[in-house]
């Protein structure tokens, strides 16, 4: 699964990187987040037809969503904390995700993500201590994680209440290979730049061609401080490589 990631690029950088046409987050700029956890607000890139021009083309937008997908049919939004990931093997079948996969795909920008593993040599311990690792593109570029988003209506609020609608998202995960697979057997599905437009296009209802195991990932993996274990901690030190003398863990490979 992917239960924690880092997203620290400022909004202007994302607008340029993803060639966004409409800044839908103009009134809400997120601070750099080195410890993104479920239910937090996150940036998402999507393509939607503007309400003012229903007959027009879909426009690429940057929006702020809440991580943890709440299906439209849910009675309350609490289910979102359990729907943070959608497995690539079942995303077209699960009632919680299949409609969003067909109509509402997005990209979730990240610097990289965290996973936990027991370092070599510690597996025989009675209660082995898991070591956090940070996994990021080797070239330092942005990681465009495949996501889904959904709209949920709070029926207890009037139509003109801005809080009547909640927009949430989930990360699609796939099997992990290469270095990432040595830490955990799952990883976020990453969409390559030359396929962003196709993935985001709501006019492409059948995107099953994307649903394949990860190929060569081009990722680098290194241990980081256990400070990331607490969602209360946040700062650039969370993604700095762990120094040997700190003793929290050794490199896995």
Automatic annotation (TrEMBL):
It holds the Pfam family SRAP. Transmembrane segments: none annotated. One of its GO terms (biological process) is proteolysis. Keywords: Covalent protein-DNA linkage, DNA damage, DNA-binding, Hydrolase, Lyase, Protease. InterPro entries: SRAP, SRAP-like. The keyword Hydrolase applies. SUPFAM superfamilies: BB1717-like. GO terms for molecular function: lyase activity; peptidase activity; single-stranded DNA binding. Its EC number is 3.4.-.-. It comes from the Bacteria. Belongs to the SOS response-associated peptidase family. This is Abasic site processing protein.
